Amino acid sequence: MFSYILKRVVSTALVCILLIIFLSLLIHIVPGDPAKTILGPRATPELIEKIHTEMGLDKTPFQQITGFFLNALHGDLGTDVFTGRPITEMIMDVFPHSLILTTASLLLAVLLGIPLGIFSATHPNTIGDRILAFLSISFITIPSYVVALIFLLIFSAHLRIFPVIGLGSSGNVGDYIMHLIIPALVLSLSWVGYLARLVRTSLLEVLNETYITAERSMGIKNRTLLFRLALKNALIPTVAVLGVGLGKMLAGTVFVEIIFSRPGMGTLIMKAIQNRNYPVVQGVSLIIALWFVFANLLADIINTRLDPRIQIGKTER
Amino acid sequence: MKNKKLFKGVLIICAILIGLTGCSKEKESAAQKDGPKILKVRINADIKNLDPARRYSRWDDVISATIFDGLVSYKANSYDIENVLAEKFEISEDGHEIYFKLREGVQFQKGAGEVTAEDVKFSYERFRDEKTASAYSDDWANLDHVEVISKYEGKIILTEPFAPLMRTTLPLNSGVIVPKNYIEKVGLDGFTTDVIGCGPYYIDEWQPDQKVVVKKNPDYYGKAPYWDEIQFIVISDNQSAEIALQAGEVDFAEISTNTVDTFKDNPDFGITSNSDLDYRWIGLNVENPKLQDVNVRKAIRAAANVPDMITAAYNGMVEQETAIVAPGLLGYWADAPKYTQDLDKAKEYMAAAGIDSLDLEIAVADTSEYRVWAEVLQQNLKEIGINLEINSMESGTFWEIGDGDKGKDVELFAMAFQMQPDPSWATMWFTSDQVGIWNWMRWANPEFDELHKQGLSETDDQKRQVIYEKMQKLMDDDAVAIWVTNGKTYFAYNAKKCSPAMTPNNSLQFRFFSAAK
């Protein structure tokens, strides 16, 4: 396990180095100037030059990359030229909210998607299964911003059960949760559909395995078979997918963040890209990459617990 | 049995959560009745920098205008100017000197000391200081220095008269006073979002990407504002803002033209709108070989159906613009021709140019507004044999296409500039020295350049009116642009709670917002 984690740390470092090299080169290729994008005609040549210097854009890509990593090792991701705020602080301000939203969404997706998948797999080709198939595909295909607006109109504008915007009053946990429910539900919907389909397919596959038939012939109850044996094995691919999902969702929450006016990593990086605020883009990308690797590592470890035959770090012989 | 327990559990959790919000809403409404008067306002984007010399966005401007005071300012709902910090304010006959005497005893917020003439000197001269790197240094283009006569008296000395000084520099954010000692102590980095002024509100809290809260300054020397607290809440999406307004989570919000009627029909809401100062246009690059002949440019202008563009892009909720200076401003050309589509004339111009077909390209930033303009124009030009290709690009990329020599390749482009309420801010981008910078039409006219200089130093309004009309006529004669609209911003507000205030061209004046009338 230790050597596996070490290998993961090394590969993560490589991924991050490649990512930053790629981003640094991209800065020199992609057209667009940060000063002009934000200030329009007010951007004088002197101001453009000053902003370039402060962002380190006057340096060679090599200097930019080495400088970024040396500072990152000290926990310094640079300073936002426009607000004067440390980028680490900007990220730490929004990261917890993205993490909570992502985790809550996946939790909802698991709570709703897995039971629906089990129902479909245990009632294959029935009307209930077909209705669930239809709903699952609908959840996957409807864009999250459309669902977000519909939910806002129903639950916030008309029924007034849930608040519309923001995170709630600071320090008020109840208010924070109320502001979280609808965004998390919106974000979870496509995952509910996806997980339901995935669990159905893998559970059906497991249920048709010979060892299940053998256990059944020995008189073990269907319920026990399903929950003690089949489901455990059927969940292995689901956990792997959830690991990817946890990483992917962190930056993929942008529409939901915009519509519910929630600060988050998605909005932060999107605005930084729009404004060509390269130091912020680099800093946020690094954190997202690290998070992605961490989420996958977590999924791998959970999978070894579910199935001891999976040995982390060892290849099959 | 287990399922029933689970169901009950879920119900209990839901009840608790709903109870929690119910309580907090009750508390909130009770606090509103007896406690401080709080106004909640939607802002479209978060602040970046509230330092008047280093502000970046419209919302920086709007919020810092509640925190800072200048020597003079606009009155409520007007461009008329009144003394604020200045007790006396006199301009010399030759326009080179402005004498001021400050009110005595005015204090900066948070114990940052008394406002003195030294602060005035510091506040204005820093715009020209390279270390400040102000994007607004042009607001003080002709400042030589500020002379301090006594603790409360001083003179603004100009190298030559500067007409926009009284119209835009002094009454707006470039004319406000900042605390010299405090800034010298905390440095520029300490004066970005945690700023100190001597205005009617002080900044209480900034939650990045969420909200900015300003509270009433208890030591304010002037008339106290009505609202005890204003919360500026960041909502970037228009539809979310409109729902938030309907749900009572904000009291005042900019809304899209599509939903104006919905709010108009609801007696709980008021709508207010004025024409913007911005100017939006389709530019024609006169240096491009395809567009060098004025007849081709006139043909395009005659074929363009601007009213159709306005209907398609704005539901017809804005007015057609006829020249660069907005209505209501000094320099507005009331007799400017209002072009409507005239295909016969367009074909005549094409014949005069000796061509019957042409391939052109229009560059637009990727927003629905500009794409719609381009699509309408594409159809219009097809009728006179011009095939227009639309090149829609991401905004960061778009802002660079006119730079330097590569700008020569631009053919048509859709553009919008913001401006301040003085005509010089509109004409300054189209002088010869702006070719390859912001003059993407690459139109160079020595007479226009000379008139622009005259307009800046002429202090007689009547003479300035003549100058700016003439400049706009020169642009019109050369058919360098198709003017589309100044735009119009619509705001909806809780009519039972507040009454808004803004200048004639939509600059929000929150210090003058009052209770519902």
- What CATH calls the topology of the domain at 279-486 in chain B is Dipeptide-binding Protein, domain 3
Given helix and strand content, the structural type of chain B is alpha+beta
Major sheet strand order of chain B: 15-14-16-13-17
Classified by CATH, the class of the domain at 279-486 in chain B is: Alpha Beta
**Arithmetic mean pLDDT of chain B:** 91
Molecular structure report:
The complex is a heterodimer of chains A (317) and B (517). With 317 residues, chain A is mainly alpha-helical. Chain A folds into two domains: 2-73; 87-316, MetI-like (MetI-like fold). Chain A has helices at residues 2-29, 34-39, 45-55, 61-73, 87-122, 127-141, 144-158, 173-207, 210-217, 222-251, 254-259, 265-274, 278-306. In chain A, helix 5 (87-122) crosses helix 8 and helix 12 packs antiparallel against helix 13 (278-306). The model of chain A has no long low-confidence stretch (mean pLDDT 83). With 517 residues, chain B is α+β, with helices and mostly antiparallel strands. Among the domains of chain B are: 68-181, Dipeptide-binding Protein, Domain 1 (Dipeptide-binding Protein, domain 1, Alpha-Beta Complex); 279-486, Dipeptide-binding Protein, Domain 3 (Dipeptide-binding Protein, domain 3), CATH 3.10.105. Chain B is 31% helix and 21% strand. Chain B has 15 helices and 20 strands. Chain B has helices at 2-34, 58-67, 117-125, 164-169, 180-186, 238-246, 260-264, 294-303, 306-314, 343-353, 368-382, 395-398, 424-427, 446-457, 461-477, and strands at 38-43, 72-74, 81-83, 86-91, 97-102, 143-148, 153-158, 201-207, 211-216, 229-234, 252-255, 269-275, 279-284, 358-365, 386-393, 412-417, 481-485, 488-494, 498-499, 514-515. Chain B has a five-stranded mixed β-sheet with strand order 15-14-16-13-17. Chain B has a four-stranded mixed β-sheet with strand order 1-10-9-8, with helices on one face. In chain B, helix 8 (294-303) packs antiparallel against helix 10 (343-353), helix 9 packs antiparallel against helix 11 and helix 14 (446-457) runs antiparallel to helix 15 (461-477). The longest helix of chain B has 33 residues, at 2-34. Residues 13-31 of chain B have low confidence and may be disordered. Chains A and B meet through helix 2, helix 3, helix 5, helix 7 and helix 8 of A and helix 1, helix 6 and helix 12 of B.
